[in-house]
Amino acid sequence: MASQDSSNPSHATFDLFVQAQSCQDVKLHFAELCRQLEINSKDFRNFYNKLKEKLNYWKAKTLWTKLDKRASHADYQQGKACKNNKCLVLGAGPCGLRTAIELALLGAQVVLLEKRESFSRNNVLHLWPYTIYDLRGLGAKKFYGKFCSGALDHVSIRQLQLILLKASLLLGVEVHTGVEFEGLVDPSGENGWMAKLQPRTHPAASFQFDVFVSAGGGRFVPDGFKHKELRGQLAIGITANFINRNTAAEAQVAEISGVARIYNQKFFQDLLSQTGIDLENIVYYKDDTHYFVMTAKKKSLLKKGVIKQDFSNAEQLLAAANTDEEALNQYAYDAASFSTGGKLPDLQFALNPNGKPDVAMFDFTCMYRAENASMVREKRGKKLLMSLVGDCLVEPFWPLGTGIARGFFAVFDTAWMVRSWGLGVPHLKVLAERESIYQLLSQTTPENTSKNYAAYCINPKTRYCRINLSSIQPHQVQHLYELDKSHSSSRKQKHMVSGFEELLKWCQKHTRGYEMVDVKDFTQSWRSGLALCALIHHFRPKLIDMSSLDESDMIHNIQLAFSILEKELGIPPVMSPSDLANSDHIDKLSLVLYITQIRNAFSLPSSVHILHPELNPTPAATPPPASEPESRGAALMANSEECYFCHLRVYVLERISAEGKFFHRSCFTCHRCGITLRLGGYTYDQTTGEGHEHGRPPREFHLSSGRIEKSDSRVTRQPSSRTRRVRFGQIFRTAGWVRSHSALFPFLQQL
Ligand SMILES: NC(=O)C1=CN([C@@H]2O[C@H](COP(=O)(O)OP(=O)(O)OC[C@H]3O[C@@H](n4cnc5c(N)ncnc54)[C@H](OP(=O)(O)O)[C@@H]3O)[C@@H](O)[C@H]2O)C=CC1
Fold it and tell me: At 742, is the pLDDT very low, low, confident or very high (cuts 50, 70, 90)?
């Protein structure tokens, strides 16, 4: 353990790291700290604990106390909630960095990419009370002593990024700057989801992940997400930053936390009459810079020569070619000077990364918000949860100062979603819950959200006052689950083949050694009935005497097996004994389904499936298993099926179903002329219960859900779930059978 020695170089490096004022310096001092303490920053799972253990420095300890407090929240499950997840976060703006921190606290491996090399944005963000509380909890005050000192509720984007970058690195996030994300790379071979990066050979290009969070800002929309345009009245925003020399005179000048025209008409009239500048509102924050953001009226911008030519199209109007930079700077300067009463001495523009006065004009007429906040992609069996946060999700109107507050709400909501993903909540439920929460985001204000900031965490219920996490249901977000169908269908086919093989192997295993039994397929091998009898004998030897059976007495053997299986296990036969004995009539699929039921029944614990009381005496005091009455009921229902017309037993294979009744195919005839009816080609008289001739051409009458609609030339059928069910039922010649065997649906669907 390192000693608590003031001359310890790692202590000095830690101080440099904490005080660093550029992205490059933060990374440099962090790397040096890791080197000095001999800790591998890639060991994300143990990094923070090792750092705490090795850096025995009082200044660091006060920071650990804060971070530990956050990390100890139950939602993170001691960093185990997402211990198997790997997350790629795009963008080191405030929202990307804040997301990375939450995902790291959940225990995920987090890699963050940012195309910029430096943090150079002077603009200042308004902070809602909860964001101040939140950032203090991450050590903001330690990293930046002036953070929200006094009553100030704002911070420059650059400072905010620095605070969050430092916290991210300490918590084990891998941050790469100067690398651009160009798109997702589909899984291939053994590889999962990866990213296409610039530079191509960047080490992060080999990172495989199952969660992708885009925080790339307003202009970046990842493939697969759609943006909605919210067009309002023309709104032209201007931002301007002036150097803050932090003199006493500057300190005296009052901030303007947001003054709108309707609240102070005189101010705006005076501004117009004295300077020719016409504004809707103005905000002034004193931070690293003197920062002004205002909404200006087009007419005054044209008059002052800021906009050269009038266009009705906002894009053309505010295009760089239609803007006079000098005039814009003067406009911003005059507005800043007037609104601070000329008290800011020696007002001088701060410079932007291009070395020019940091003044910009923006179009807020058209704001974008994503149609949905999340989606899942699945390719080659590899799933990827995708999510948007920050401006990428909803573009804020800067003068309202909602950007970072709603941005962080979306960050927490996303972390909550990733937590559910990591904990194995069904994917559609994960998406439905995220979209339910997203519906509320744009309505949040400091007033309608919880005031208990200390309780804020990633659980939305700690923040939103009235929230219904299931206002959107899983079936409503099915379109957000993008499945690579070509692959999945071939996978299903593989599944199906392996399902058949597995069943065949099971049959072979349990009939091995029986004379005259050789199971090779799901047709001929079963004709004599001996294979079925052998299966029964293997599992319930008392039920059948194999020595009494004659291979040539096929119908008898089959009938015996069918009866035992129906009586003892509640499995009704799916065909007549003669159908099975006659090689031309063996329906492989039906036999597979029948044997599957036999296997399932024999694989259950005997207390669940055996219906014979002598073989399975139930102690008087023991209640039957909860599932039994239902399965027994279903079996009895299936057993009692008889033809509606002739009242004789009707087997699944010879059965058709219509109007909720079962018929032999041969019995399903027109009451008047005796012609055999086809499904979809008859009408049904509810009062007599008789079938009528369907008429010719057949197109004229169709089966519908009790409703026949006539168009000009012909009667048309309204598609309905009923129609679909009948079609599905036709495959098995009965809808009722399919309904009563719904446990087989997953298997059936593969077919
Ligand atoms: N001037 C202002 O006042 C601004 C204020 N904000 C505010 O900041 C807050 C949060 O913003 P946030 O959502 O975090 O977004 P930000 O715009 O702050 O951050 C996004 C970051 O991702 C980078 N990026 C974009 N595309 C890629 C890519 N393909 N590969 C790698 N990096 C990429 C961006 O670089 P680049 O910017 O070069 O595209 C940017 O640095 C909001 O409150 C917002 O209102 C945001 C932007 C400007």
Answer: very low
Pairing verdict, β 289-296 and 715-716: unpaired
Q: What is the pLDDT of residue 667?
A: 77
In whole angstroms, give the CA distance from residue 590 to residue 569: 18
The CB of 94 under 6 Å from ligand 1? The reply is: yes
pTM, 2 dp:
0.68
**Which residue among 88, 95, 124, 404 has the greatest number of ligand 1 atoms within 8 angstroms of its CB, and so is best to mutate?**
95
Ligand 1 atom nearest residue 389's Cα: 13
User: Distance, CA 335 to ligand 1 centroid (Å)?
Assistant: 27
Round to whole Å and give the CA distance between 395 and 210: 26
Which residue of 90, 112, 113, 115 sits with most ligand 1 atoms within 8 Å of its CB, as the best mutation to test the pocket? 115
pLDDT above 90: residue 495: no
Q: Side chain identity at 671, as an amino acid letter? A: H
pLDDT tens readout for residues 544-557: 999 999 999 999 99
CA of 181 relative to ligand 1 center, distance in Å: 13
437 in ligand 1 pocket by Cβ < 6 Å? Answer: no
ipTM: 0.95
Q: Are 665 and 687 contacting, i.e. CB atoms less than 8 angstroms apart?
A: no
Residue (of 644, 655, 615, 677) closest to 736 by Cα position: 655
- Which atom belonging to ligand 1 lies closest to the Cα atom of 393? 13
Mean pLDDT for 102-117 is 98
- Helix, strand, or coil (residue 7): coil
Report the amino acid identity of residue 435. Answer: E
Distances (CA, A) of 301 to 296, 307, 310, 360, 377: 7, 6, 10, 13, 47
Q: Is 139 in the pocket of ligand 1 (CB under 6 A)?
A: no
Q: How high does pLDDT run on average in the chain?
A: 83
**The two three-digit tokens of residue 117, written as one number:** 């090399």
Q: Which pLDDT does position 707 carry in this prediction?
A: 32
Predicted pLDDT at 573: 82
DSSP string across 126-159: E--HHHHHHHHHTTHHHH-TTTT-TT--EEEHHH
Q: Give yes or no for residue 511 having a pLDDT over 90.
A: yes
Question: What is the CA(125)–ligand 1 centre distance, in A?
Answer: 13
Distance 100 CA to ligand 1 centre (A): 15
Ligand 1 near 395 CB (within 6 A): no
- Ligand 1 centre and the CA of 319: distance in Å? 21
**Cβ 114 under 6 angstroms from ligand 1:** yes
Joined tokens for residue 684 = 């049904």
For 336-384, what is each residue's pLDDT tens digit? 999 999 999 889 999 998 999 999 999 888 788 999 999 999 998 899 9
DSSP state, residue 365: S
**Helical segments of 22-86, H only:** 23-37, 44-54, 58-71
* Residue 697: cis peptide before it, omega within 30 degrees of 0: yes
Buried b / exposed e over 540-571, threshold 16 CB at 10 Å, is beebbebeebeeeebeebbbbbbebbbebbbb
Position 491 scores a pLDDT of 62
Question: To test ligand 1's pocket by mutation, which of 391, 395, 402 has the most ligand atoms within 8 angstroms of CB?
Answer: 391
Pocket lining: 717 vs ligand 1, CB cutoff 6 Å = no
Distance 352 CA to ligand 1 centre (A): 15
579 pLDDT higher than 80:
yes
Question: Ligand 1 centre from 156 Cα, in Å?
Answer: 13
Q: Is the CB of 123 under 6 A from ligand 1?
A: yes
- H/E stretch holding 560: helix 554-569
Please name the residue ranges forming H helices in 384-484: 403-422, 427-441
Reported as a pLDDT band with limits 50, 70 and 90, residue 471 is very high
Higher-pLDDT residue of 523, 206: 206
Read off the pLDDT of residues 586-595 as tens digits, 9 standing for 90 and up.
778 888 888 9
